[in-house]
Structures are given as C-alpha cells and as structure tokens.
Amino acid sequence: MGGPRRDRLALALIVWGVLVAQVLLYPGVEDVVTALGAPGDLSASMWFLVAEFGAFVAFASVWGAISDATGRRIPLVAVGALGGAASYLALAAVPEVGASFAVVLFVRVVGGAFTIGAFSLAITMLADLSGGNGRNMGAAGIAIGLGAALGSVLGGRLATFDPLAPLFGAAALLVAVAGLTLVVPDNVPGGADASPRAVLARLARRPELGVPFAFGFIDRLTAGFFALVGVAYFRDAFGLDAFGAGLVLALFFLPFAVLQYPLGSLSDRIGRFTPVVVGSLAYGAVIVAVGLAPTLPVAAGLMVLVGVCGALVAPATMALVTDVADAGERGAALGGFNLFGSLGFLGGFLLGGVTATTLGYLDAFLVVGGTEIAIALIAARAVRRLSPGEGVGVVTVGD
Predict the structure, then answer these.
(1) pLDDT, tens only, 324-347
(2) What is the pTM of this model?
(3) 30-45 pLDDT, tens per residue?
(4) What is the pLDDT of residue 396?
(5) How many domains are contained in the chain?
(6) Host domain of residue 381
(7) What is d(CA 2, CA 79) in angstroms, rounded to the nearest whole number?
(8) Which of 25, 81, 143, 343 has the fewest beta carbons under 10 Å from its own?
(9) Hey, is 340 helix, strand or coil?
(10) How far apart, in whole angstroms, are the C-alpha atoms of residue 344 and residue 210?
C-alpha cells in the first residue's frame, strides 16, 4: 500500500491520536482538576476545558497561515504534537510544584495552541490528497469519531487508577503522533485563507453558507455539552465513576463515528432536507429525553440514539456546504464550517456549564436540546431551498 492510500491512513491515524489524547481527560475531568488544586466542581471543569478549546479557536488559522508562508506542514504537525505533549507533562507536574489553578489554565491555553496545529494541519493535508474529497473527509470523520469513542473509555479507565494518568497517556499519544509524521511526505498545494476575518468576508459574499454554518455551530455545541455536562450528569445522577461515565459517553461517539459514511451516502440519494432538518428535530428531542431518563439503562440506550441522530445530521450538513460553495472555494468554505463548529464546541462548554450550575441539569438538557430543535424549525425553509432535489438526488447550488 503506497501513495495517497498510505498517506490517508497515516494522516487519519494522526487525527485519531490527537482526538484520543484530547478526550482522555473528559470522563475524569472532575478528578483531574481536583488533583491539580481546583475545586472538583462543574465550574472548574468548565474553565479547564474552555481554556484549551479557546486556544483551538484562536490559533487554528495561525497555524494555517504559518504553513502557507513556509510552504511546510509536516514539521508543523510534529511541533504541534510535541508542544501539546510537553503541556500535558507540565500539568502532571503541577501537584509537585504547587502551582495555582490560574497557572494550570495558562498551561491549558498554551497546550491547546500547540495541539490544534497538529490536528488542523493533518485535516488540511487529508483534504489536499487525491482520491476524492468524500473518501478523504470520510477518513477524517471516522478518525475523529473513533478517537473520541476510545478516548472516552480509555480515559475513564485511566482516571480510576490515578487522576493524573490521563495526562501521561495524552503526552505519550502525542509523542507517537509526532513520530508518525516521519512517514508522511510534505505537500502544500496552497490553500485559501481560513482565518476568521476571511471566513466572515466569504460569508458576506455568499450568505447561503450561513445555513450549514449555523447547523454546524449548534451540532458541535451539543457535542461540547455532552463532553462536560453530560459526563458530570452521569456521574452525579447515577453514581458512576470516571470509567462508567466514559463508557456512557462512548455510546454516543461510537455510532456517531461508524454511521457517518453510510448516512452521508444516504443524504446523497434522498437530499439534505430530511437528514438535516428532520434529523436535527429528532436529535434535539433525544437530547432532552436523556435528561429525563429515569434509570441508567434508559439513559444509556438514549445515548446510542443521540449518536445515531448526530451521524445522520453531521455529514449531510457538511455536504450542504459543498453543495452551496463554488467548486473553487469548497476547501475554504469547509474551513469556515469547521471554525463555526469549533466555536460551537466552545459554546457548548460555556452554555451547558453555566446553565447546569445555575439552573440544574434538566434545564441544561432542555436548553441545549431545545436549541437544536429551534435551529431546525427556523432554518427548515432555507434548507429546503438549498436542497431542491429532495427525494431525487441533490442539485448542486453554485456550480
């Protein structure tokens, strides 16, 4: 196996490794922040996650700009991975040196600034490969979903042994990611500007992109919500430890990963409206149902449905971006979609964390699930207009 196929596998493994490292901390995040000297409450966990993801949003376009300016990507992926590994090891040393939680948050920002370089540039390199955008982005989607699923289970297990074990595990994975860069050739064909300013300018020129961007924002908001509030809810409501919470979280991520390709293909056959709009309505309703679940088995079963609904919506929404954008701007449009998605993930931490701490878990589930339902109702006509081939295949807008 060589050429694009080998490179696709190696880059997908890089994406997978970064996601596993990131998610390792989620199931036991309360235990991690407590070991690092903060109160083991939802607010401290929220800021611990927000610090990293805020850096993701702020620095993703910086790495892209550096890559374009230098004409190199693979060395930057390695630097990003090794910098992220160093940040995790620095966090693990905090109990020994007695640093404050403010220092912990600063290290998280620095680590996020490095790690997003490895992740975003690996995704960009996948998009640059020959062999079909669908195949390349499908590899990225599966790597992300499976990485999140494994990270949930493995991170929960590690946290039950030692709250700091996920930090060492994440560092080791990122070192391995840096090693993988040795087998991938560097190739920078020159991409479009995906900075926030360029994305907003592009959105002003083609406002139809606002429709899938809005769905992407809300969909990732729900994922951020489950990564923080969902884990805390399962632990508090059902008495789970970090491993148990990680298993329940994996019930969402696993079907979300493995169903992306077949359900994305389904949207090619039946159009985008049903997967995006009807799927979002079902997605929001099931999220609310999780918050109302009377027992753990019911909640666990509903989490599987959450993953299925998410897998129905996500690839169809991304495909809607490519339907709307001109052929020459699709890569940049997807960059904008990912920027809005990252903002959504950050919003999920903040909205979910603030709502849960001030109003309670049930209200948080109602707000987040209701937001998903609201975007489907508000944007239904717009999605119908952008997917005129409903039921008979998709008519591409802008080609």
Answers:
(1) 877 666 666 777 787 888 899 999
(2) 0.84
(3) 999 999 988 878 899 9
(4) 38
(5) 2
(6) 192-399
(7) 25
(8) 343
(9) helix
(10) 14
Instruction: Specify whether 233 is located in the same domain as 157.
Output: no
Q: Which two tokens stand for residue 390?
A: 């409903």
The verdict on 283 and 366 lying in the same domain is: yes
Looking at the fold, whether 178 and 281 belong to one and the same domain comes out as no
Instruction: Give the separation between CA 345 and CA 75, rounded to whole angstroms.
Output: 27
Q: DSSP secondary structure string, 18-86?
A: HHHHHHTTSTTHHHHHHHTTS-SSHHHHHHHHHHHHHHHHHHHHHHHHHHHHHT--HHHHHHHHHHHHH
Residues 68 and 169 in one domain: yes
Q: How many whole angstroms from its chain centre is CA 146?
A: 12
Most confident listed range (81-85, 239-243, 341-345, 391-395): 81-85
- Whether the CB-CB separation of 36 and 25 falls below 8 Å is answered with no
* 235 and 171 within one domain: no
Helix, strand or coil for residue 328?
A: helix
d(CA 251, CA 26): 14
Burial of 3 (0-12, 13-18, 19+ CB in 10 A): exposed
What one-character DSSP code corresponds to residue 277? I
Per the CB < 8 A criterion, the answer to whether 229 and 43 are in contact is: no
* Alpha-carbon span 389 to 280, nearest angstrom: 19
Question: Of 20, 44, 46, 22, nearest to 33 (Cα)?
Answer: 44
Contacts 24+ apart (CB under 8 A), 276-279: 276/215, 276/313, 276/316, 276/317, 276/320, 276/376, 276/383, 276/387, 277/376, 277/379, 277/380, 277/383, 277/384, 278/376, 279/309, 279/312, 279/313, 279/316
Q: How confident is the model at residue 318, as a pLDDT?
A: 81
Same domain, 347 and 359: yes
b/e map 179-206, b = 16+ CB within 10 Å? ebbeebeeebeebbebbeebbeebbeeb
